[in-house]
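=== Per-residue structure ===
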Amino acid sequence: MKNTPIERHLIDETINEFQIVDFSKATIREVKAIASKAETASGVEFIKMEMGVPGLPPSAVGVKAEIEALQNGIASLYPDINGLPELKKEASNFIKAFINVDLSPEGCVPVTGSMQGTFASFLTCSQCDEKKDTILFIDPGFPVQKQQLVVMGQKFETFDVYDYRGDKLKEKLESYLKKGNISAIIYSNPNNPSWICLKEEELQIIGELATQYDVIVLEDLAYFAMDFRQDLRLTLTGFSLKWRAVLRAKIKRQLPEKKKISRRFFRVCSATS
């Protein structure tokens, strides 16, 4: 038997303990749990790449502000149900500075993470029209979002965009939308985990079809502008009149250098990631 850094039988036994028949279909959390258990049993350290932990130092401004808020007794209060005015205003400023879109602070809705943001968005989209009971995923995407819909008892459909780039996307997307049961389309751009970015013509296809079929677009921007090889900060705005953007705001991160940005960007009805 070929020598490996960790005994093969140890890994096999651990996988069996988790009752996983096909390890290639294991979830991120199952892989993490198996790796942690095997690491403890073997003493061999795993280099874990299943979770995207940036490891970037937080902004000193954010750290100072959090300390001051705690010292002023913020932990004794529930957050304002209408949101913190200062945060909503700064979110609006961020969108203007980096996307060059004017958005009222009232339309900026911070949440406690992308999980809560997409959950709330799915609930809203699924109840806008009783005839539209299905969410369409343009994959690859975040698997947990599909699990959220399973928990809600909501339907979803999916297709892999790999074979439908460019003009091919229109026919494929319309084959779903013309059924009349799609309430929302969701995709990530830049994409997680493939890191592809949708092109201008592809965003235009999505926007025009969403408007034609009265479908909400959920644009997951968790990796907003993180590919610096070229200016890829292009999103759906300008192409669709009916959409919702998902923006995960990392308030304490250092912001990139301010640059001039195209107006063809999303406007955030409510920041839900």
Q: What stands out?
A: The longest strand covers residues 182-188. The radius of gyration is 21 Å. The chain has a mean pLDDT of 79. Helices lie at 8-17, 28-42, 60-71, 85-99, 114-126, 143-152, 168-177, 200-212.
